[in-house]
Amino acid sequence: MKFKNFIYFALGAVTSGVICIFLFREGLKMTKVHTLEMPLLLLSNESTKNFHFLPVGTTLYFDKSLPEGVTRYKVYINIDRMPLQLHNLADSTEIDPIEARSLSKSELSRVLRDYPLSRYELEAILRSRYLNKNEVKEVFDDYLSASK
After folding, report:
1. Residues 23 and 47 in one domain
2. Which domain holds residue 124?
3. Cα(38)–Cα(133) distance, rounded to whole angstroms?
4. Cα atoms in the 13 Å half-sphere on the side-chain side of 117
5. Tens digit of pLDDT for each residue in 136-147?
6. Half-sphere exposure (Cβ direction) of 29: Cα atoms closer than 13 Å
7. How many domains does the chain contain in total?
């Protein structure tokens, strides 16, 4: 009888230990984040004519890297007192993501001409080093010659 109780106790202890290790490991997983230092241009199939940006300071939460070379992030948005109509997604793999990227030289020219960038946003775009000095100079030369 004592041996049987010892076996039950040992099995319970091992099971509890495994559960504790699993819960502890899950609790230690760190969420990887990135805080934007420059605005990112948002692109979707429907917004080809207008510019939309993720602003400087937006926190991107790492989701996963895909084999195609794309990395997926989540952005959390608080919506205050505006109930949105929700529906079920039939297939959870059919996500329709929006693409975000840094501005190219031609896009920066259009943004300067058509979009009200703040000085802070423009400085962040120029500091990002996605455009070299010659490209920035060309963009500003075109902008200044067009505004005369």
Report:
1. no
2. 31-84+91-146
3. 17
4. 25
5. 888 888 777 776
6. 8
7. 2
